[in-house]
Amino acid sequence: MQDYDIVIVGGGPGGLAAGLYASRANRKVVSIEKLMPGGQIANTEWVEDYPGFELIGGAELARKMEDHAKKFGLEIVNDNVTEIYTEGKYRIVKGDFDSYRAKAVIVATGGQPRKLGVPGEHELAGRGVSYCAICDGAFFKGVPIAVVGGGDSAVEEGIFLTKYGSRVYIIHRRDELRAAKIIQERAVKNEKLEFVWNSVVERVNGTTKIESLSLKNLKTGDKSILEVGAVFPFIGFVPNSNIFREAIRKDSMGYIITNENMETSIKGIWAIGDVRKQLVKQVTNAVGDGTTAAVAADKYIEAWGD
Ligand code: NAP
Questions:
Q1: Single pTM value for the model
Q2: Neighbouring C-alpha atoms within 13 Å toward the C-beta of 27
Q3: Residue 39 Cβ < 6 Å to ligand 1
Q4: CA 271, chain centre distance (Å)
């Protein structure tokens, strides 16, 4: 069992910002990250909406955030957190490799891609079904690629995938995109992109790799086959909020509900960034949340007593 003032679960931008502020306040702080620090931006080609950086590679921004937090003393460990629970005055964060005892815990666990939930998706995962364009796009050079969704992720990643695919189809269930206008404008100008409107994927077809998708047009009811070598679903997000032994307040989608100081319904536990119920999911929000939570946790520890 390792002892800390503050344990941060997650090493994305929110977790790293919280780590920076909490370490700078001279607390003993660790950020526990399953894989590499950086969270979703580490798998984003370019970030163009983080103030002060007109255009910066996602991985580079993540690295800068990590280095900056470490400079103030943040410790980063690799572990997979499976449970958080209360033991007396302390919170215990249990990982696969170790357990961490903390006075305060900041949960910055983000979420994971929502699945299509259709036949073939699970079976062909890693053989043409992928949820990370920057990781897997290059495997599909010169073949037609499909992206599913109509939000910022689908359209941005669709544009990115035109680097590789002979053609990129964006399959959306409506005839209007949810993505920001500036991203839509770029998509419309890209000649390799084609939209398949009012349509959903009913099945991913193939045996050892993807050969095609079975589509259904929701307006006409028509069914069709789209030949592609890969499909990248970007249909939203499921928060990673199922690690609490005690009941914690969440909304119907599983997002953790906090007050304005990022405090959850469990004393001594804060939640920040994409795992928290809030209007927008941006790096800037996560960083702001992390700042607030770190300051609030620091004050909480100040009043800890013996
Ligand atoms: P999102 O905004 O929730 O969009 C999900 C898209 O998938 C929507 O178009 C939705 O259709 C569609 N969809 C949902 N369930 C579906 C299903 N079962 N079958 C087919 N389509 C389905 O998710 P996101 O694009 O991943 O973005 C998540 C958050 O991150 C957003 O707040 C976004 O602004 C942010 N983000 C920002 C940037 C950026 O600023 N550069 C980049 C990436 C993400 P409907 O439109 O019909 O609901």
A1: 0.86
A2: 30
A3: no
A4: 14
